[in-house]
Design a protein that fits this description.
Shape: globular
Structural class: mainly beta
Number of helices: 1
Distance between the termini: 23 Å
Strand order of the largest sheet: 1-2-8-4-5
Largest sheet: 5 strands, antiparallel
Number of strands: 8
Strand content: 35-45%
């Protein structure tokens, strides 16, 4: 499993979503594209690590401030960093289960495990990170 996970992390690209406003109430969105050529065979219910802060490794998003709080120059409004979700659709209406291994709301550094329902070896898989929602006050993981 670890070798597969390493291959996947090398094949993760960060992109932009469609322009806001988003119907789900979040202000920002990032598209994460998993390169199918890095997936040896189609996987189901696959736990994948997504990390923020380049100091955590070369495969992390360099922009850690996305998951820092506004008070620390980031985008999250909730002091505990609860106002983000992962979804399987670009409308943000189908949440994906995730777990926080690390989240530092001061620096934005985070290691999050996302459960990918179906990870294709024949077509790129896209998931979406939505963040900053003033209405979210509880942990979304």
């Amino acid at each position: 499993m670890k070798s597969t996970l390493f291959l996947l992390s090398c094949g993760l690209a960060w992109g932009a979503c469609a322009n806001p406003p988003y119907a789900n109430g979040y202000t920002y969105c990032r598209e994460l594209v998993i390169d199918h050529t890095k997936v040896p065979s189609t996987q189901t219910n696959f736990p994948m690590v997504v990390c923020f802060d380049a100091t955590m490794g070369a495969n992390c998003s360099a922009n850690a401030l996305e998951l820092a709080t506004v008070a620390h120059g980031g985008a999250l409004i909730n002091a505990s960093g609860y106002d983000f979700i992962f979804t399987s659709d670009n409308a943000g209406s189908t949440p994906i289960a995730y777990e926080r291994a690390i989240q530092n709301t001061t620096t934005g550094a985070a290691e999050l495990w996302v459960l990918i329902a179906s990870l294709s070896s024949s077509a790129d898989t896209k998931i979406y990170l939505f963040y900053q929602n003033v209405l979210v006050t509880t942990d979304q993981s």
